[in-house]
Amino acid sequence: ALGYHKVVKENRNLYNMVQDLKGNIRVYCRIRPAFNSEAKNVIDFTGEDGSVVVSDPLKPHKDGRKVFQFNRVFGPIATQDEVFKDTQPLIRSVMDGYNVCIFAYGQTGSGKTHTMCGPSGGSRKELGINYLALNDLFLLSNRRKDITNKLEIRSCTGDDGLSVPQATMHPVKSTADVLHLMKLGEVNRAVSSTAINDQSSRSHSILTVHIHGKDVSGSALRSCLHLVDLAGSERVDKSEVTGDALKEAQYINKSLSCLGDVITALAQKSSYIPYRNSKLTLLLQTSLGGNAKTLMFAHVSPEREYLGETISTLKFAQRVSTIELGAACTNKESREVMQLKEQIDSLKKVLANRE
Ligand code: ADP
Ligand code: MG
């Protein structure tokens, strides 16, 4: 058994190395703990290594078993730190000039916000990727004395992404500044109750970190990190929302289905990728396109009543994992280009003052 595990582990490392060469999209699956441990109807996820086996307890024969393969699977007892540990190298690569996008996908109540922000009670013990990532980037930036990295935060919420009128850019000096901004964002976030979960978030929440710095040769490094907590992916009819809430849900589902279309087009290596069909895909274009590193967290609930949604999330995630893009590359600008841009900026200022 030991030998077997070793082989599996080595295979995984090899797999990750190949992923590194492809430099693009990886998919992690996270299964949240069951709310009621007594419930008999819990789906049995007994995957080895990166696989998830979903077996429907009501269909114990072969038809009820489905197997999915991902880069990594976090079971119900995985801690926030474990999840972060496997995400950290990717996040750190923004400091080397890569664009990075991490997005949490799944139905309402499957644990997206738990992974990205932390538990709803706001326990300081189980802070999520947003906090841990920012903390790590500040640490790294303070440690790299040779590079003048300046962190700037652009925090925006809502489906509108970059063009959201209320979106604001805030320079930040510490993780505490960021936490404060994130709290403000949380308050602004449209939350309305549905039949599925009375804390259902039907808005996307996007935290973008812009990194400006210089490497040792003096070239400018510009990169960004998108941390995205998507709206619930469940079908609208199930959540029994009506009126304005329904319109909002449909609108948001539309942007999620546009995301699906983009993923499909990328997976099929289509010559036309419909990024422009929604603000969400437009915003994520640089992350889902060529040179970025993207990580999707596919979140699923263990309860049997959500089997349909669970399977559809896993199928979507499987499709995302088949996307092959070129190797990721950094955004470097030569010193000459940088100086020219600075000249343009100062000339623009001169012009503006004349008017
Ligand atoms: P979503 O954002 O997908 O709607 P949440 O993150 O709000 O879901 O999770 C729903 C509930 O389950 C919350 O009370 C959350 O604290 C809890 N939960 C989710 N994932 C985990 C986990 N891995 N460990 C412990 N509790 C979790
Ligand atoms: Mg949420």
UniProtKB/TrEMBL annotation:
Superkingdom of origin: Eukaryota
Domain Kinesin motor: 24-323
Coiled-coil region(s): 330-355
Binding site for ATP: 106-113
Family affiliation: Belongs to the TRAFAC class myosin-kinesin ATPase superfamily. Kinesin family. KIN-14 subfamily.
Name used for this protein in its record: Uncharacterized protein
Species the sequence originates in: Ilex paraguariensis (yerba mate)
Full-sequence portion shown in this chain: 332 to 686 of 989
